[in-house]
Amino acid sequence: MLINYKNLKTFFFDLDGTVWNWRDFNPQMRHIIEKLEKKHKKVFFITNNTILSQTGYARKFSRMGLQIAEEQIITAGLVAAKYFQAKGIDRVYAIGEQGLVEDLSAHGITVTDAARAVLVSYDRNFNYAKLKNAYDLIRTGAELYTTGRETSWIVGTEKYPAVGPILAAVEAATKKEAINLGKPSAIMKQRILDDIFLFPEDCILIGDELSDVEFGSSCGFRTAVVLTGIVDDNSVKEAQGTLKPDTILRDINEITRNL
Ligand SMILES: [Mg+2]
């Protein structure tokens, strides 16, 4: 499908594999974002990566030379925090890193070893003791949540296991299936539709995984995939239904060429 980028008002970008390889912007991305903002398009970033909080990502952008407001960044940690807040859950056991703890704390959620909710996320310090604690809590009635199911992500040129394998350990031990609060869940979708004033037909989501496409489709947005991240040409071509993007962006400059 040919997309008329000029007519679109709101651009949602996935971060890892799409905007950057974590260390550096992917080619042209910084320029594309600057140009979209100059043309008064609304730009948002959606990520399941909870290494950083919403505030942390704004700082990272700033260090990389782009001024992005916190409100333009939607992390799975933020979605989780607001979800727990709305449900009156104020204590959570989190397998995750500092960014996740920051997003939760900023919304009044206490991160503690004893809680009725277990939230699994990416954690480079995941270990047996954490698995055991999650196992004990869930066996005695705690609910299991996750910030996503990605199997891998890219830092520089190297691929790393993501939250998926960590979650698999917890799910295998407890025989419970986690409720996903990140992309492509309905909970993440509702957060975006509640927090951002938009008409879905004016929006596009650009990502590097078929789950990004699935998420964008579920929101009623146009969808595009880039080939700078996880997904390859063949998997995109074989994708069907809600996993099939409207377009493959082989040249990211297409977005801004006719703005
Ligand atoms: Mg990605």
C-alpha Rg (nearest Å): 18 Å
| Percent in strands | 15-25%
Specify the overall morphology. Answer: globular
- C-alpha termini separation: 18 Å
At the first level of CATH, the class of the largest domain is: Alpha Beta
The CATH fourth-level homologous superfamily of the largest domain: HAD superfamily/HAD-like
Instruction: Show unreliable segments.
Output: none
Strand order across the largest sheet: 3-2-1-11-12-13
Structural class call reads alpha/beta
When the domains are counted, the total is: 2
The overall pLDDT average reads 97
Number of strands: 13
Element string (H = helix, E = strand) = EHEHEHEHEEHEEEHEHEHEHEH
Q: What does this protein look like?
A:
With 259 residues, this protein is an alpha/beta fold. The chain has two domains: 5-48 and 184-257, 3-Layer(aba) Sandwich (Rossmann fold), CATH 3.40.50.1000; 76-180, 3-Layer(aba) Sandwich (Rossmann fold), CATH 3.40.50.1000. It is built from ten helices and 13 strands. It has helices spanning 29-38, 54-63, 76-87, 98-106, 128-139, 163-174, 186-195, 210-219, 233-238, 254-257; strands spanning 10-14, 42-47, 73-75, 91-95, 110-111, 117-120, 143-146, 152-155, 158-161, 179-180, 203-207, 222-226, 247-249. α3 runs parallel beside α4. The longest helix is centred in the first third of the chain and has 12 residues, at 76-87. The structure holds magnesium ion.
